[in-house]
């Protein structure tokens, strides 16, 4: 590896580290707010229970959430799977649910959506990646 490639690799690692640190700070600040922005006083989603019924898959592929919008019934478990070679982090746009940890290739993150509403989310490492879960 020549010197230019080493500098580029170090710069990419530094940028990824800084983005991840910023994302974790932002997600912590968002989840610390008092209640979800869409109304209601209780958290609309929770970590997955062992026997959560129906499941809907969302792939993370080519720096996009596929599908970008997913409509599910109340009580559905949504599972995000990272199919990219880069790490991704699923975070609520309004603090409605706790952010995922950074996900490497083939890692998953799941949430059960207990309340109707529209839940916008994004990749906290790559903020241009956005998606929506609509719960009816």
Taken as a percent bin, the fraction of beta residues is 25-35%
Annotation, overall tally of beta strands: 9
Mean pLDDT: 77
Indicate how many domains the architecture comprises.
1
CATH architecture: Sandwich
Walk me through what this model shows:
With 136 residues, this protein is of the alpha+beta class. It has one helix at 3-31; strands at residues 45-47, 55-60, 65-66, 69-72, 76-82, 90-92, 108-113, 117-123, 130-135. The protein has a single domain (3-135), classed as Immunoglobulin-like, CATH 2.60.40.420. The chain is 21% helix and 32% strand. The chain has a five-stranded mixed β-sheet, with no helix packed on it. It has a four-stranded mixed β-sheet with strand order 4-9-8-6. Strand 8 (117-123) and strand 9 form a beta hairpin. The radius of gyration is 16 Å and the shape is globular. The model is unreliable at 21-44 (pLDDT under 50).
Keywords:
5-stranded mixed beta sheet; alpha+beta; Immunoglobulin-like; globular; 9 strands; 21% helix; 136 residues
Concise structural overview:
The protein is 21% helix and 32% strand. By secondary structure, it is an alpha+beta fold.
Layout of helices and strands:
Blueprint: H1 3-31, E1 45-47, E2 55-60, E3 65-66, E4 69-72, E5 76-82, E6 90-92, E7 108-113, E8 117-123, E9 130-135
Parallel strand pairs: 2-5, 4-9
Antiparallel strand pairs: 1-7, 2-3, 5-7, 6-8, 8-9
């Amino acid at each position: 590896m020549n010197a230019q490639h080493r500098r580029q690799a170090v710069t990419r690692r530094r940028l990824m580290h800084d983005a991840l640190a910023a994302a974790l700070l932002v997600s912590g600040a968002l989840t610390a707010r008092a209640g979800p922005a869409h109304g209601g006083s209780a958290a609309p989603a929770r970590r997955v229970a062992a026997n959560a019924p129906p499941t809907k898959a969302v792939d993370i592929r080519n720096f996009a959430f596929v599908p970008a919008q997913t409509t599910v019934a109340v009580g559905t478990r949504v599972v995000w799977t990272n199919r990219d070679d880069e790490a991704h982090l699923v975070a609520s746009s309004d603090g409605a649910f706790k952010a995922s940890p950074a996900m490497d290739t083939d890692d998953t993150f799941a949430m059960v959506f207990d309340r109707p509403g529209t839940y916008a989310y994004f990749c906290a490492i790559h903020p241009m990646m956005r998606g929506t879960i609509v719960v009816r």
